[in-house]
Amino acid sequence: MAEEQLQQFLKKVDQLNQLVALVKSNSELRERLSACSNHHEVVTLAAEQGLQIGQRWGEPKLQDPILQATAQQNNLWLSAAPAPGQEQLQSLLQAKGVRLELIHSNAAATPEGQWYDQPLGEWVALLTGSAQLRFEDETSPRKLEAGDWFWIAPRRRHRVDACEGGAGCLWLTLFVDSNLILN
Asked: How far apart are CA 137 and CA 151, in angstroms?
């Protein structure tokens, strides 16, 4: 482990220890933590206390101005997180019948009652973070972690129920015209 990674790891442990101390001394905060049902909710609760526990070990510090400048040099992982509750889209490639996008979400969700119903098929990979995705034809949401990928057929209604706060989620999405799909 490089010294920089060791320092990053120790800082995260320190932030977690601070959260533990706050929870032990504040019964209301303890109840709120107990009510969390996923990593995203815990990261958001910690952020409300001024603590950053969402960044995973080995991920670059996106707040660093040098890394932010590097992000503009076509590095998927160095995208600066949008404001909480927001997401930003970056078109990486567009050609007839296909579109490749990088989506960076920060504690964002599809508005209540809204579903995506797209004419294009969508291959999705969650590069960083964790999220919950719901399909209209399934009874419960899918819990996603970094590295998970899936195919959404054209017109299959879906929505994002939750995604991680802090550094947020990076999604790589490839939209494909259904006429180009070979079965």
From this structure: 14
Q: Is the pLDDT of residue 182 over 70?
A: no
CA 141/CA 161 separation, integer angstroms: 8
Other Cβ atoms closer than 10 A to 120: 19
The string of pLDDT tens digits covering residues 42-51 is 776 777 777 7
DSSP string computed for 38-101: SHHHHHHHHHHTT----SPTT---TTSHHHHHHHTTT-GGGPPP--TTEEEEEEEEEETTEEEE
Residue-wise pLDDT tens digits, 37-90? 666 677 767 777 777 776 555 555 545 444 444 444 567 766 678 888 888 888
DSSP designation for 107: S
DSSP, res 116: B
As a whole number, mean pLDDT of residues 15-38 equals 84
Check: CB of residue 102 under 8 Å from CB of residue 75: no
3-25 helix and 27-34 helix, angle to the nearest 10 degrees = 110
Name 100's bridge partners: 93, 174
- Gap between the Cα atoms of 173 and 48, Å rounded: 30
What is the token pair recorded at 50? 């001024």
Full set of structural domains in the chain with CATH: 3-66 (no CATH), 76-180 (2.60.120.10)
